[in-house]
Design goal:
- The complex is a heterodimer.
- Chain A is mostly helical.
- Chain A is built from 12 helices and 4 strands, in the order H-H-H-E-E-H-H-H-H-H-H-H-E-E-H-H.
- Chain A has one domain.
- In chain A, the strands form 2 sheets. Chain A has a two-stranded antiparallel ribbon.
- In chain A, strand 3 and strand 4 form a beta hairpin.
- The radius of gyration of chain A is 21 Å and the shape is globular.
- Chain B has a domain of 111 residues: 2-Layer Sandwich (Alpha-Beta Plaits).
- Chain B has a 3-stranded antiparallel β-sheet. Chain B has a two-stranded antiparallel sheet with strand order 1-4.
- Chain B is elongated, with a radius of gyration of 29 Å.
- Chain B starts with 11 loop residues before the first helix and ends in a 14-residue tail after the last helix.
- Classes of the chains: A mainly alpha, B alpha+beta.
- The interface between A and B is medium-sized, with 13 and 15 residues.
Chain lengths: 368, 176
């Protein structure tokens, strides 16, 4: 442990948390409102600031200044603990996701642990405790039902979530998320292997199970982050808001923040696993056509610009996925609870399982 | 008698959900795009844009007192509007016109004329009942105030909203 590592890590943590994640969360809420409005032929918030861009700040002040009401019959300790538990895992998970190549020689990942994806799953599934504990501590029937639903939903979807990513690690042979990105730089993104020897039909054959894998993973992430069509823990129409019914003010805002932070983290993991992470090749016709790799390894200003370009690429990809989250939310109605369980246990689990064997079979005959 | 609703038997394509989901996504993105490129007609942006210029002549806005062509308040304080007013929003205190005045044969004028705009229901009965054509419903509709007292329109305010109404009834003028 040298001081350089500690200082750069702290800088990265502060920068990623306060300059990227928190603004992204608040503007994701704004974007959600605008996107939903546009889809429904409305305008959405357009009053505060230019095109309503200051709306999240006004909302934040509103939430901070609201009365923080604690109902009398709640279990106070857990009631206070739950919002923290809801927001914490989503933010911690981002630590292992590589959000850029290098900047001035510093790798743009907070903690490049060798159990990367396992860490993501281990921490991300803690998020459900916030919801379950919040629902239980509220001492009220609708939050309780929301919490119970959340836990059963988590169990049914965590399985397919975990199984869906195994094909990737069959290919990469390493759980480190930076290795996943490195592999995709050399061999092309998992859902579109246009790099390397892209004319090899075996690689394109592999994309079929990869796309299936991506679909299962994406749908499981929808369920994991409690987004529509799987937002049964919240289910405003039937559960009066679900697990957060008894919460007000900043505690409610933390649940809200946690949901959007989980969405951002889920998108970030998806980008890393399937869309090549921070990698965006630029076409180059210098000495014949080839893909030019932009990263921060070049010394001097070009390297800095390259590193910043990689970070921008990564978050642009994340933003696109967040838009898809919203697009789906404002299109699909909520699933019924038995449909959700059937989908999780009878379809996605099996699809993900078969998919692993499919990839293994292809890999067995994959000519080296 | 119980009616059994037949459940439609879905074919495999419908049971897969995916075509329907993609069709739905296509519809919503179409709406999103149309809105983004300004092709969707949206509602009027109220405080900036207003209907005022296209309000019809029979629009029933805030009631107001009018003056005649000579600048005299037309109201003779007969109190018919006060009696007819369904929510009892109008309060009139009549006063006597001194005999030396040019319009002394009118006898009464409103010393105070208050309309409580919290109570007013914009029904227009005051306008209908007025024998002097002194009270009219104008096109003002955004009546706001910070207190209840702010919402009471006094005589000055009513005359200000009403303005001058020319050549309708001129019975109190001197005979030519």
């Amino acid at each position: 442990m040298n001081s350089f590592l500690i200082v750069t890590s702290l800088l990265k943590i502060v920068a990623i948390l306060f300059l990227v994640i928190l603004p992204m969360v608040s503007y994701a809420v704004y974007a959600e409102r605008r996107v939903s409005a546009f889809i429904q032929d409305r305008l959405g918030p357009n009053r505060v600031g230019l095109a309503g861009l200051l709306q999240p700040i006004a909302d934040m002040f509103k939430l901070l200044l609201k009365e923080d009401f604690t109902p009398r019959n709640v279990n106070t300790f857990y009631y206070w603990l739950a919002p923290c538990l809801a927001v914490m895992p989503a933010i911690i998970t981002i630590a292992v996701v590589p959000f850029g190549s290098t900047l001035l020689g510093v790798p743009m990942v907070i903690a490049d642990v060798n159990v990367g994806i396992l860490f993501v799953f281990a921490i991300a599934s803690l998020g459900v405790y916030g919801i379950v504990i919040g629902g239980w501590a509220s001492n009220s029937k609708y939050p309780f039902l929301g919490g119970v639903r959340s836990s059963s939903q988590m169990i049914s979807y965590e399985l397919s979530l975990g199984l869906a990513v195994i094909p990737i690690f069959l290919l990469v042979g390493n759980l480190r998320l930076t290795s996943v990105v490195r592999y995709q730089i050399e061999n092309g993104w998992f859902i579109a292997p246009f790099m390397g020897d892209w004319l090899n039909p075996w690689k394109w054959l592999l994309t079929i199970p990869m796309v299936v894998s991506f679909m299962v993973f994406a749908i499981a992430i929808f369920a994991e982050t409690n987004r529509l069509p799987f937002d049964l823990p919240e289910a405003e129409q039937e559960l009066a808001g679900g697990y957060n019914t008894e919460y007000s003010s900043m505690k409610f805002a933390l649940f809200f923040l946690g949901e959007y932070a989980a969405m951002i983290t889920g998108s970030a993991v998806m980008v890393t696993l399937f869309f090549g992470g921070w990698h965006l090749p630029l076409p180059s016709w210098h000495h014949g056509f080839h893909w030019m790799l932009v990263d921060g390894s070049v010394p001097g200003w070009p390297g800095v610009i390259g590193g910043l370009f990689n970070i921008a690429t990564f978050f642009a990809k994340v933003a696109v996925l967040i838009f898809i989250f919203m697009w789906v939310r404002w299109t699909l109605p909520r699933f019924r609870y038995d449909q959700l369980m059937r989908l999780g246990w009878l379809f996605f689990f099996e699809i993900a399982l078969v998919n692993i064997f499919l990839v293994a079979a292809i890999l067995a005959y994959f000519p080296k | 008698m119980a009616i059994t609703v037949p459940r439609p038997s879905l074919n495999w394509r419908e049971r897969m959900y995916l075509p329907a989901i993609i069709a739905g996504l296509a519809i919503t993105i179409k709406h999103f795009k149309n809105m983004l490129f300004g092709r969707t007609k949206v509602t009027m942006q109220y405080p900036e844009q207003k209907w005022d210029s296209s309000l019809p002549d029979h629009y029933r806005g805030a009631p107001a007192l009018v003056r005649d062509a000579e600048g005299r308040v037309r109201c003779v304080a007969c109190q018919l509007c006060e009696f007819i007013c369904p929510p009892r929003a109008i309060k009139i205190i009549p006063g006597e016109i001194p005999s030396a005045d040019r319009f002394s044969k009118v006898e009464k004028y409103p010393q105070e004329f208050d309309i409580d705009m919290i109570r007013c229901i914009f029904c227009g009965m005051c306008e209908e009942v007025c024998p002097e054509q002194a009270i009219f419903l104008r096109k003002d509709y955004a009546i706001t105030g910070f207190t209840r007292a702010d919402m009471v329109h006094h005589k000055e305010k009513l005359l200000e909203i009403g303005g001058v109404m020319h050549g309708v009834v001129l019975k109190w003028n001197e005979k030519k």
